[in-house]
């Protein structure tokens, strides 16, 4: 079956993760995504030491996660010839994706207001750190800073009196990238219907604010939201916590409706003596009496008497929403994830097979997308230039001048 974006051309002038995630999603849907890099390459190619991986151009799992199924051309956009080639790419493009800072794009003449005059049908997708407006619009933004820190994660989601939790690279970026992809697809539909382009914008900061929307809104009121960070023992719903088992693991419970689950949960804990009591029930009475910490302690004590496997049986029988707090190795081998095609086992040219993560959106009729490794720097440059009408002589001249760059593949 033909993929829904077959025939759509995307020019991606972006590095690192968030905007590249949007491009990866469109590529999986069949779009011809052409990534434009400098000769130095996207800095994401060299983040291996921070992730504990080998620094290897031929086995780069992070690069493949964000850039599989794309093509790549390396142009010197500081030269007239390089910029000319970039504009030739845009002449027949449906979408441009970028994450460059607005002030830089304006200097290059690659901002939306400039390009829409030349390419009125173009859908222009931009992802920034803090948004396009305001006093901090030109600050550099990564998910650790613009998403986790300024967006409320690091300060709010920690135990009171402790340092913020350890950040994970890419977590915020992936969220933002999929938001950008959703907007691009809506704008692309409009462009195909009306012939009119559009600018789609999101940022790490804006996406974090949306994600935190429930509690930001709750902070209008003098309740628990104004008290964060909190000690989990003092949370509004003492059931919504992670509890330590006898074998030193944590099981997360989630019962948004405390009253609905109270009797079943207390019975599963082996505390039938209070399952029928009204001392800790309903939740409003429990809160008013200041007894939520007691409930938390009761649950924690009970969890310490059984192992994970014992709790899985008891909680499943009681239909209590729970999950073991898994580590990354367990996730990588999770049978539920395998059953839902979350992974792809990539065999690299050096013979190593590594388990890679797929995009999280599936289509019944289209099937699971292919997983072609991310391109080397400028790998498809000559091919793309020929598609734009450049002759062999013109391409050779640009290669010699450095306006076009192709990384030497030592395997060939």
Total beta-strand segments: 12
Strand order of the largest sheet: 6-5-4-1-2-3-12
Proportion of helical residues: 40-55%
Q: What is the 3D form?
A: elongated
Number of helical regions: 20
How large a portion of the residues is in β-strands, by DSSP E? 5-15%
**Sheet of most strands:** 7 strands, mixed
| Main structural class | alpha/beta
Q: pLDDT average, as an integer?
A: 96
- Low-pLDDT regions: none
Radius of gyration: 26 Å
Distance between the termini: 34 Å
Question: If you had to describe this structure to a student in words, what would you say it looks like?
Answer:
The protein is an alpha/beta fold. The chain has 20 helices and twelve strands. It has helices at 18-28, 48-51, 61-67, 80-91, 102-108, 112-118, 143-149, 153-156, 171-194, 204-211, 213-218, 258-268, 272-275, 283-288, 292-303, 308-318, 328-332, 335-339, 381-387, 392-401, and strands at 9-13, 32-37, 71-75, 95-98, 123-128, 198-203, 242-244, 250-253, 322-324, 343-347, 353-357, 404-405. The strands form three sheets. A seven-stranded mixed beta sheet has the order 6-5-4-1-2-3-12, sandwiched between helices. Helix 1 packs across helix 9, helix 7 packs parallel to helix 10 (204-211) and helix 12 (258-268) packs across helix 16 (308-318). The longest helix is centred in the middle third of the chain and has 24 residues, at 171-194. The chain is elongated. The mean pLDDT is 96.
């Amino acid at each position: 079956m033909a993929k829904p974006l077959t025939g759509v051309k995307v020019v991606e002038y972006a590095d690192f993760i968030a905007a590249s995630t949007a491009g990866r999603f469109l590529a999986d849907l069949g779009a011809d995504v052409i990534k434009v890099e400098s000769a130095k390459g996207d800095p994401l190619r060299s983040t291996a030491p921070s992730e504990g991986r080998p620094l290897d151009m031929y086995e780069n799992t992070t690069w493949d996660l964000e850039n599989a199924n794309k093509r790549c051309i390396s142009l010197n956009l500081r030269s007239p010839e390089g910029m000319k080639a970039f504009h030739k790419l845009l002449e027949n493009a449906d979408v441009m994706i970028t994450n460059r800072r607005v002030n830089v794009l304006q200097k290059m003449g690659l901002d939306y207001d400039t390009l829409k005059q030349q390419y009125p049908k173009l859908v222009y997708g931009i992802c920034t750190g803090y948004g396009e407006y305001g006093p901090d619009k030109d600050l550099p933004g990564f998910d650790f800073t613009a998403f986790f820190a300024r967006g409320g994660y690091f300060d709010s989601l920690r135990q009171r009196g402790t340092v913020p939790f350890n950040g994970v690279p890419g977590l915020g970026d992936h969220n933002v990238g999929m938001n950008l992809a959703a907007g691009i697809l809506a704008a692309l539909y409009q462009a195909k219907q009306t012939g009119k382009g559009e600018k789609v914008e999101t940022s790490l900061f804006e996406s974090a604010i949306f994600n935190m929307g429930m509690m930001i809104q709750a902070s209008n009121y003098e309740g628990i939201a104004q008290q964060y960070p909190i000690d989990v023992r003092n949370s509004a719903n003492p059931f919504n916590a992670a509890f330590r088992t006898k074998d030193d693991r944590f099981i997360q419970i989630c019962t948004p409706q405390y009253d609905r689950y109270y009797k079943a949960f207390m019975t599963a804990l082996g505390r039938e003596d209070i399952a029928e009591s009204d001392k800790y029930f309903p939740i409003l009475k429990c809160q008013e009496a200041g007894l939520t910490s007691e409930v938390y302690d009761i649950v924690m004590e009970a969890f310490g008497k059984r192992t994970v496997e014992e709790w899985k049986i008891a909680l499943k029988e009681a239909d209590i929403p729970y999950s073991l707090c898994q580590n990354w190795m367990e996730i990588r081998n999770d049978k539920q994830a395998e059953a839902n095609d979350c992974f792809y086992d990539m065999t690299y040219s050096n013979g190593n097979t590594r388990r890679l993560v797929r995009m999280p959106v599936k289509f019944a009729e289209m099937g699971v997308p292919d997983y072609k490794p991310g391109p080397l720097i400028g790998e498809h440059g000559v091919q793309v230039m020929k598609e734009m009408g450049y002759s062999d002589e013109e391409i050779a001249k640009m290669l010699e001048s450095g306006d076009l760059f192709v990384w030497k593949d030592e395997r060939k």
